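Handout for the seminar on molecular recognition.
Each group receives one record of this type.
Step one: identify the two inputs.
Step two: read the structure output and locate the region that could contact fe (ii) ion.
Step three: write two sentences on what you found, then compare them with the reference statements printed after the record.
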Amino acid sequence: MRSAESSSPIGHDGPRRGHDGPHLDHDGWLLGYAPMDRLHEEFLALVHALAQAPEHAVAAALDALALNARAHFGAEDQWMAASAFPARACHIDEHAAVMRSIEGVQRRVARADFGAARPLADALLQWFPGHADYLDSALAHWLCKQRLGGAPIVLRRRIEPFVAPAAG
Ligand SMILES: [Fe+2]
Ligand SMILES: [Fe+2]
């Protein structure tokens, strides 16, 4: 993770362009623990809204995202603590690092550096699938197993990827 106010806040090697990736148009991020899935749906909607916000709407979109991220990460941190989830430190640390990045961009936007918002949104879209796959999914399994006595069952639609027709 780079510093909170670097141009690439989540620390990936470059922003991914386009917002049609495996996120809102895809069920792949559903993990089977409904309260977490709801938080993720809201989080992704707000990240997409930030990515598409015109300059005059960037500050409000970023504030809404920060509020949501604080609730989202706080809920997961609390679930981990309350259920004695093993090896939770790196998951909690990752939430804190992402929150610092968001807050760093909030400070830049407060100084009218609106261009800082789009790289943040891109970085969050790049970061989220891996975080959900490796950290959130383990927590969802743990919580479902504790509460229901079994691993979550996830029903996903089968969505074929779009393949552009060959030219000519
Ligand atoms: Fe999450
Ligand atoms: Fe998480």
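Reference statements: Residues 76, 91, 95, 131, 135-136 surround fe (ii) ion (ligand 2) (CB under 6 Å). The two ends are 45 Å apart (CA to CA).
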